[in-house]
Design brief:
Length: 222
């Protein structure tokens, strides 16, 4: 989900408690009526819930909205290392001359180890197998049919990624490249765009598919 409605959902997901229409409107910069429309649509889709606030005086209490937490139980392979990964990301960010490069290398090795003993369905392409791994790890991937572009709707290390994106996001890209290589795919034409849209990062498993083929004499693509 992208656009203003996605921004409202993301703000709900990041909130430590229920939020009112007025509070969401102020924080997202939309009119209260617009915020109400987005919130009602999220409730209708099962992405948010609403309840009346406790009465404090005259008038009807305000509605309070919360995001529905439908995240799967984190994969133990990620959950058990979440705290350590956060600490290491902070250490690399402070001390390494190339924290992004070291994060990528660490993720690459991790991705290879995650898939070393993983069975490979003969009919599945390397890209589809990587998407399946990301599902197991809790990224809630949504891929196109060819698995060239993937929206990652969840981040198992979200707090660390927001604090140290230059490290954690490169670790995630490294996991993808290591797993893709282990499955016999080409890891180089891959890219990860952190927080590319509200509530999701965008992963390209084959950036060559983004190129626009033009014949000589064609005008440049705007």
């Amino acid at each position: 989900m992208s656009g203003p409605r996605g921004a409202v959902l993301e703000r709900l997901q990041r909130s430590s408690g229920p939020m009112t229409i007025a509070g969401l409107a102020a924080e997202t910069g939309v009119h209260p009526n617009t915020a109400r429309e987005h919130l009602d649509a999220l409730v209708a889709r099962g992405l948010a819930t609403r309840e009346r606030a406790a009465a404090t005086g005259r008038g009807r209490p305000a509605w309070r909205y919360s995001a529905v937490d439908d995240r799967p139980e984190p994969d133990p392979r990620v959950r058990d290392y979440a705290g350590l990964a956060t600490a290491l990301a902070g250490h690399l960010a402070r001390t390494s001359p190339n924290p992004a490069g070291e994060g990528l290398a660490a993720g690459w090795a991790w991705g290879r180890s995650l898939t070393a003993d993983r069975p490979s369905p003969p009919a599945a392409s390397p890209r589809h197998q990587v998407v399946a791994l990301l599902e197991e790890l809790g990224f809630a991937p949504e891929a196109d049919p060819a698995a060239t572009t993937v929206a990652l709707r969840r981040c198992p290390l979200l707090d660390a990624a927001r604090e140290h994106p230059q490290v954690i996001c490169q670790v995630h890209l490294g996991i993808v490249r290591g797993a893709l290589e282990q499955h016999g795919g080409d890891p180089e034409p891959t890219d990860l765009l952190p927080f590319a849209e509200p509530g999701a990062c965008r992963l390209h498993l084959d950036t060559r598919s983004l190129a626009v083929e033009r014949t000589p004499g064609d005008p440049p693509t705007p």
